[in-house]
Design brief:
about 325 residues; ornithine cyclodeaminase, domain 1; Rossmann fold; eight-stranded parallel β-sheet; seven-stranded mixed β-sheet; 11 helices; about 35% helix
Length: about 325
């Protein structure tokens, strides 16, 4: 007999959020990816063309962690017309010693959004120029908001400029953020305007064509790109990675298939230029070495992050007595 903890999205939101422990949990996985300790299979992707949907399955075993998360993440993009969210998913956590299911997390995609936002903060902490205080956010969805929230954990942001294809969504993000955080936040008239005044540029869109071009960047800027999580997506223009002084990816192996590096490699980028975020975090390879450098971090999302954030959630749930326990 074993106990299975079942947690709803409401339970999970009570347990984890944008805090220092969550940030450290996400940061800690990157050196494990880079030194080969993490056992992380390629992402399994199921396209559901008839329903304009996709399902991604990610997982990773991390030595020393008590659980192994298997995440099923669904995106069905006609759902809003049915009054349903377009993104969702759940995680199963297996005991790392026995393989027996230990927890089922019906998070509705919250943990994915959370760990992605925190990953952006990790990238900025290690790659943005010292004293960075102004941010441009391209996109106005949930992830755009989470990227702003996470950045406040690692630096003193004072100014945010938002641009999105839909001006009403951009204004919604501005109003929401202004009501929660002490920031000077506004809608930019164009992407060029948003990028021009920013120390940090974050792209968080579902774009399949570039939204930022190489010529718009200025010395000293840092770019975090999080939107290109499928083969057909791209946010950064041709030549932008070539122009960067430092190019960082979360996983070299994964970046050959997904993300901004994939397109740049196909266009001739030298793969030796790719540095893994874990190498920067551990100090085995340098990140930014000058305030004048342009740095780019291409985040495609890893199963290692899922195992880490799910494990933290389960640990806190058990300590707090949150959730429904089923004897199996």
């Amino acid at each position: 007999m074993a106990d299975l903890s079942v947690l709803t999205a409401g339970d999970i939101r009570q347990l984890v959020g944008f805090g220092p422990a969550e940030l450290e949990a996400v940061e800690a996985v990157y050196p494990l990816i880079s030194d080969g300790s993490a056992v992380m299979p390629p992402i399994m992707r199921i396209d559901v063309a008839a329903a304009n949907g996709e399902i991604d399955i990610k997982s990773a075993y991390l030595p020393g962690y008590p659980g192994i998360a298997i995440k099923v993440s669904a995106g069905f993009f006609d759902n809003p017309s049915r009054g349903l969210p377009s993104l969702g998913g759940c995680m199963m956590v297996l005991d790392a010693e026995t393989g027996i299911p230990a927890a089922a997390l019906f998070d509705g995609g919250y943990l994915t959004d959370l760990r992605t936002g925190l990953a952006g903060a990790v990238a900025a902490r290690h790659l943005a120029a010292p004293g960075s205080a102004s941010v441009a956010v391209i996109g106005a969805g949930v992830q755009a908001r989470y990227q702003i929230d996470a950045l406040t954990l690692v630096m003193d942001i004072d100014t945010v400029s938002v641009w999105a294809r839909r001006a009403d969504q951009a204004m919604g993000l501005v109003n929401d953020t202004a009501g929660r955080l002490d920031l000077d936040i506004s809608v930019a008239a164009s992407v060029v305007e948003a990028v021009a005044g920013a120390d940090i540029v974050v792209t968080a869109t579902p774009a399949t064509e570039p939204v930022i071009e190489a010529a718009w960047l200025q010395p000293g800027q840092h770019v975090t790109a999080v939107g290109a999580d499928a083969e057909h997506k791209r946010e950064l223009g041709r030549g932008l990675l070539d122009r960067a002084d430092v190019i960082v990816v979360d996983s070299r192996a994964q970046s050959r298939r997904l993300g901004e590096a994939r397109g740049a490699l196909a266009e001739g980028l030298d793969p030796a230029r790719l540095v893994e975020l874990g190498e920067v975090v551990s100090g085995s390879r340098p990140g930014r070495t000058s305030v004048e450098q342009i740095t780019v971090c291409d985040l495609t999302g890893t199963g290692a992050q899922d195992t880490a954030i799910a494990g933290l959630t389960v640990e806190r749930a058990r300590r707090a007595g949150v959730g429904h326990v089923i004897a199996t």
